[in-house]
Design goal:
The structure is a single chain. By secondary structure, the protein is mainly α. The protein has two domains: 102 residues, no CATH class; 45 residues. Helices cover 59% and strands 0% of the residues. It has five helices and no strands. Helix 1 packs antiparallel against helix 2. The protein starts with 43 loop residues before the first helix and ends in a 5-residue tail after the last helix.
Length: 162
């Protein structure tokens, strides 16, 4: 199930009939006013849901072709056309299905986002590894130190027996 920012259930709504459900036969709503609160057009999640519905109904190649044609039919100033490419979930989904939705700046922005996410994952994994190592390293170090003290006592400090 995918929900748009408007909270409308899109696909896989558990059998509840929803008049806003997007299917492979839906017609995109291009009403994308720039006036805040006056936007009834499809958002990025709607366009993703539409592609998934197209794939389910027509298969991947036909879905990609139909989706691209309808996506390109938006006006040059439409909000989804200009901004969805910068949303990493949207960009990565369409990149994964073979549709290029990004210009060079969107590619750069999503690359930076991916690098930042990967760097964060590396830092988290390093911290987790250090935590794991320290959980067994401290007891082992304690045993080594005690063993060293015992050896030093036995070798150098213990009074000689007569």
């Amino acid at each position: 199930m995918i929900s748009g920012r408007k909270g409308r259930t899109r696909i896989g709504d558990g059998g509840v009939v929803d008049p806003t459900t997007i299917t492979g036969d839906s017609t995109p709503n291009y009403d994308t006013s720039w006036i805040p609160g006056d936007n009834n057009g499809w958002d990025c999640a709607d366009w993703m849901a539409f592609h998934q519905a197209l794939v389910a109904e027509y298969g991947q190649p036909a879905a990609n072709q139909k989706w691209q044609s309808l996506w390109d039919a938006q006006s040059w100033d439409a909000q989804p056309y200009n901004w969805c490419e910068y949303e990493s979930d949207f960009y990565n989904y369409f990149k994964g299905v073979g549709i290029d939705v990004g210009d060079i700046t969107a590619v750069a922005a999503n690359t930076v986002s991916t690098v930042a996410t990967d760097a964060g994952n590396i830092i988290n994994n390093t911290a987790n590894t250090a935590s794991t190592i320290s959980s067994w390293l401290l007891p082992v170090a304690g045993i080594v130190v005690l063993g060293g003290l015992y050896f030093a006592y036995e070798t150098f400090l213990k009074p000689a027996s007569k």
